[in-house]
From TrEMBL:
InterPro entries referenced in this protein's UniProt entry, alphabetically: Acyl_Trfase/lysoPLipase, NTE, PNPLA_dom
Keywords linked to the UniProt accession: Hydrolase, Lipid degradation, Lipid metabolism
Transmembrane spans: none
Protein name according to UniProt: NTE family protein
Motif (GXGXXG): 31-36
GO molecular function terms noted in the UniProt entry: hydrolase activity
Active-site feature positions: S60 (nucleophile), D172 (proton acceptor)
CDD domains linked: Pat_PNPLA6_PNPLA7_NTE1_like
A biological process from GO: lipid catabolic process
Domain PNPLA: 27-185
Keyword Lipid metabolism on entry: yes
Amino acid sequence: MYTHFVLNLRKIRKMEAKISTSKSIGLVLSGGGVRGMAHIGLIRAMNEFGIDAKIVSGSSVGALVGALYANGNSIDDMLTFFKETPLFSYHFLTIAKAGFLDTEKYISVFEKYFPENAFSALIRELHIVATNLQDGDEEFFSSGELIRPMLASAALPPVFSPIQINGNLYADGGIMNNFPLEPLLNTCDYIIGSNVSIVGRLDEKDLKNSLQLTGRVTGLMIYASAKKKLRACNLLLESREIERIGLLDRKGIEKAYLIGYDAACRVFEKECKTY
């Protein structure tokens, strides 16, 4: 583990030069539940290497991490947000909505981190994707109210209820677009992607029941839809280690964060060696 990563200053300057000469740097953050804490590890590595993204696009947990980054929150603030926000609380249970948890009850939690509740209040440009359940389309949000689109993008059915925005019901962005590269195309000169929805080989013993099979098929469909977009990134961060962490396993927050940090440091170090 790169708990204390030290790199020759000259190499760091060359790494900065390679990326910072671009007119704009874009950052794409995928969905993936708790595995998305690896995005925070990447951002920590970016900070240490002097890499600053001007535009961020995120889906599901990537939208949440992206919003915190766009808001200028520190790494500690980001980790605290996910560690202290109650993922499952009996206070949020509902029988009146389509979902086990009432997503709208999380609005007050988010207001503590985003008191102005507006895209315009962020220090970086942010794009969030959510799924319009009624129209059957994906939709990007980048202006106006911030919190409701954020919650909608991370509202995974059937755990979380859909969020109503402008008369329509929205749910998890990953349903239609788990790697929202589109807003950065023809806008950014250098794109860094972080994908935590990894699809590796499974043993036969891991496909013994309907639940396992459904999870595998869903994962393959999500990955297939993102393949071409992953290749379009100038720099892509993925780590097979992240597969060991459950999508809703809160105990994996710190581990996923460190996996993301270590993987990013290794990639950045490799980039430095080419100069």
